[in-house]
Amino acid sequence: MNQNISRRGFNKLVLTGIAGSTLGAFGMATPLFANQKHVVVIGGGFGGASAAKYIRKLDPSIAVTLIEPDSTFYTCPFSNWVMGGLKAMKDIAQTFDVLKNRYNVDVIHDTAVEIDAVNHSVTLMGGKVLNYDRLIVSPGIDFKYDALEGYSREAAETVMPHAYQAGPQTELITRQLQELRDGDNVLICPPGNPFRCPPGPYERASLIAHYLKEHKPNSKVIILDDKEKFSKQGLFMKGWERLYGGMIEWRSASMGGKVLGVDTKAMTVETEFGPEKGGLINIIPPQVAGKIARDAGLVDSSGWCPVNPITFESSIHPGIHVIGDACIAGTMPKSGFAASSQGKVTAAGIIRLMQGKVPAPPSLVNTCYSLVAPGYAVSVAAVYKLTSDGIVSIKGAGGLTPMDADEDQLAEEATYARGWYKNIAQDIWG
Amino acid sequence: MLKQVSVWAVAGMIATVTLTGCNSGDAGKTSGVRAIEDEFNPRGQILALSCASCHGTDGKSVGIMPGFYGKSQVYLENALKQFKNGERYSTVMERHAKGYTDEEITLIAEYFGWACQQTTN
């Protein structure tokens, strides 16, 4: 039996070898031939980098150019772990070397400033103009700084960080936490829906409380929320009670959580119930699709980008696909995992379109781990498909960590959270 | 005694199937060499691409999640069905597996069998 299998295996190896060499002769070349299809991707985050890698992986005959301002991309997932002292900045740093060297993606570190949807070109800040057959826009989010009186980009960069794009903002809030006087409170002010990473502010509250418990036991975290309920609420609140006693206080919008404005000098937040003082104030403003998507007219009145749910091609400008936080993807949350899932579906769809074939119906996934303490994590999962109501999660699948999960299971989920980060980072940038 | 023997026979088959790696689940068939297919089912591809986000590209895991690169089509199909039916312990996988029909599970397993053959060399 073993011999038979070996012979079969050998035949397959030979045949695969022939297929491989054919690919080598015609497929792998990177120079841009006159007739070679060219995809330009704007944004090297979870969505854009996934799309770039998977187009090259699944059809190496297509040339891909990736436009990303930074040579190091810091991920928002796990940036809360940095604040809690559980990870270093280098642990959330991703680079583009593998995309460049192994997948032959032409990575240009510059900023896209203009999209010409009629002539199919993108202009970069450095002056370069790139032509594309298809364009993928994955710009992430921008903040509506003027939604809160007294708040501004400058306030975020100096006094009251949003820390909702990782990098210098993560370093600033982490430093402020370390310098916080024991007894002063941390205020976290999340926006209403929709916004990036719905459980993010609450994982942040958890890990800041973890840090405070060890280093500043007289301080506490107050969440001033612009909502009446939040993601994984029951699981978070149960965890907070078990792990942090009264150290985390959540106020819903109607119970004084709604923030009207800030005073950066007095270090106060103005609520409907009066001012609240904080030693560290984390303002997470309401959000819209990234600037280039708005400038190119890819957004509707909601500030986000409507797309065809099969290929994520813009409903406004043909030939341009919008993925990740910037797009409206049915009931999918704005998460790194969702963005990557959309990037891969878009990659497969674009390849089919360029081959003159019909794209397959989409299948998308989201999994989101939130760490409540180092050995205590909760998760939510969903599988999505296309129905007449758009992209919806499949009933009977997915869902939350059970409310009665025991300590072993919660610890196991924390271990899997670490494993998830390693694998998704490898799947996108590695 | 007979029961004992058949248990070992089954165990042996499972071991063989697992070891055959890219031999995509035809170990039980006697139809001989199965030609390499250049085409894959695009539905299978779309469904299968999701798996890599937790299990690594092509199922080559670098974290604690089990990798499945090189596992046979039969192995993958059985494992996914066991997760779906709650016969195999997991924290998250059962929640995912319930999102796919048995036909979709077969398509996923077939795609990884095909993809593994493409990357063997």
UniProtKB/TrEMBL annotation, chain A:
Residues 170-285 form the Sulfide dehydrogenase [flavocytochrome c] flavoprotein chain central domain. The keyword Cell membrane does not apply. The keyword Flavoprotein applies. Transmembrane segments: none annotated. GO terms for molecular function: flavin adenine dinucleotide binding; oxidoreductase activity. Residues 38-143 form the FAD/NAD(P)-binding domain. Keywords: FAD, Flavoprotein. It comes from the Bacteria. This is Cytochrome C. It comes from Prosthecochloris vibrioformis (Chlorobium vibrioforme). The lineage of its organism: Bacteria, Pseudomonadati, Chlorobiota, Chlorobiia, Chlorobiales.
